[in-house]
């Protein structure tokens, strides 16, 4: 079934990303709905197990297409870059644990704003991890974004919440994992990266889950199922969105998540968005959008053979 003519690739991508925002909101509401009756370390493990079985058929199908296209080997040899796979998988595992814990303890809108710092950390970490050259414009935008993060975090004040550190650490680790994935993608097919990450997150999240394990009732299992299914849905819709549309066009639509999360927090849990979080969001979102725009401009410049280096 083909999309209507008016539904361009960018519009399709935007709709997929808005769907991702909605799925992420349902996932977060599921975490909050457990009300601390299940530790987030146990939740993370069960989410990873359910997601593994949900994506396995897709990964196997993708691998078969890669083999037919000559982009992957049909053998099951261990990747020579297994150390990078291991590092990425463990980073994602810790990031999920920290992120889920932050969601369970903080207002939904506030934790979402902190998660939006991930693009800023990607810019910061791309220099040592990938050797990228970042121009003064993107450094300035990144500095503005981090100023917004300080407004949200309020370090050194009575309003500082230690749980915010876990949300920030989650953003840092997800940013690093994304950059490692980018490095791996130069030699590894997507199916290999996905299966390594899925397996490592399952085994990596098991030890802390055993420590925090409690027997589960049917209501808790229902919430865990919702979290797992919508977490996987969020990942899938993000992938589809950025596959069919231009990243620079789609990026702004990801901030629908702040609207959805704020509404869910207010309607379901009686949360009123905190003023410092909303003020910080202006700086963080503005700087992230500028960075996305500069990245798009830079890519267009380097794609033209006659063009000089972009002053980003």
Describe this entry's structure for a reader.
The protein is mostly helical. The protein has one domain (37-70, 78-303). It contains twelve helices and no strands. It has helices at 9-33, 40-68, 82-105, 108-115, 118-130, 136-153, 163-184, 190-212, 218-244, 247-250, 256-269, 275-303. Helix 1 runs parallel beside helix 11 (256-269), helix 2 (40-68) runs antiparallel to helix 8 and helix 2 runs parallel beside helix 9 (218-244). The model is unreliable at 306-312 (pLDDT under 50).
List keywords for this structure.
disordered C terminus, 312 residues, mainly alpha
The helix/strand order is HHHHHHHHHHHH
> Could you tell me the strand content as a percent range?
under 5%
Give the terminus-to-terminus CA distance: 41 Å
- Total strand count, please? 0
- Please compute the radius of gyration using only Cα atoms: 20 Å
Largest sheet: none
Domain tally: 1
How confident overall, as mean pLDDT? 87
Unreliable runs = 306-312
Give the helix tally.
12
| Helix content range | over 70%
Helix/strand/pairing category: mainly alpha
Shape: globular
Précis, in short:
76% of the residues lie in helices and 0% in strands. By secondary structure, it is mainly alpha-helical.
List strands and helices in order, with pairings.
Layout: H1 9-33, H2 40-68, H3 82-105, H4 108-115, H5 118-130, H6 136-153, H7 163-184, H8 190-212, H9 218-244, H10 247-250, H11 256-269, H12 275-303
Helix pairs in contact: 1-9, 1-11, 2-3, 2-8, 2-9, 3-7, 3-8, 4-11, 4-12, 5-6, 5-7, 6-12
């Amino acid at each position: 079934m083909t999309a209507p003519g008016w539904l361009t690739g960018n519009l399709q991508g935007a709709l997929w990303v808005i769907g991702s925002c909605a799925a992420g909101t349902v996932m977060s509401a599921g975490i909050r709905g457990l009300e601390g009756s299940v530790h987030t370390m146990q939740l993370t493990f069960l989410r990873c197990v359910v997601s593994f079985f949900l994506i396995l058929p897709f990964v196997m199908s993708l691998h078969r297409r890669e083999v037919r296209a000559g982009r992957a080997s049909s053998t099951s040899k261990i990747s020579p870059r297994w150390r990078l796979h291991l590092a990425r998988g463990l980073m994602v595992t810790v990031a999920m644990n920290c992120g889920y814990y932050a969601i369970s303890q903080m207002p939904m809108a506030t934790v979402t704003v902190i998660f939006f710092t991930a693009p800023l950390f990607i810019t910061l970490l791309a220099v040592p991890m990938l050797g990228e050259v970042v121009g003064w414009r993107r450094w300035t935008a990144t500095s503005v974004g981090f100023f917004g993060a300080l407004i949200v975090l309020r370090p050194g004040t009575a309003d500082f919440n230690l749980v915010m550190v876990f949300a920030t650490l989650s953003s840092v680790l997800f940013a690093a994992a994304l950059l490692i994935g980018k490095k791996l993608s130069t030699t590894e097919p997507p199916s290999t990266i996905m299966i390594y990450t899925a397996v490592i997150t399952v085994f990596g999240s098991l030890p802390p889950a055993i420590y925090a394990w409690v027997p589960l009732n049917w209501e808790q299992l229902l919430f865990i199922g919702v979290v797992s299914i919508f977490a996987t849905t969020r990942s899938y819709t993000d992938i589809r969105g950025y596959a069919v549309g231009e990243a620079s066009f789609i990026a702004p639509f990801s901030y629908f998540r702040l609207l959805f999360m704020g509404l869910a927090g207010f309607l379901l849990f009686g949360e009123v968005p905190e003023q410092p979080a909303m003020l910080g969001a202006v700086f963080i979102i503005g700087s992230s959008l500028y960075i996305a725009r500069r990245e798009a401009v830079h890519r267009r410049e380097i794609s033209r053979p006659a063009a000089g280096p972009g002053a980003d």
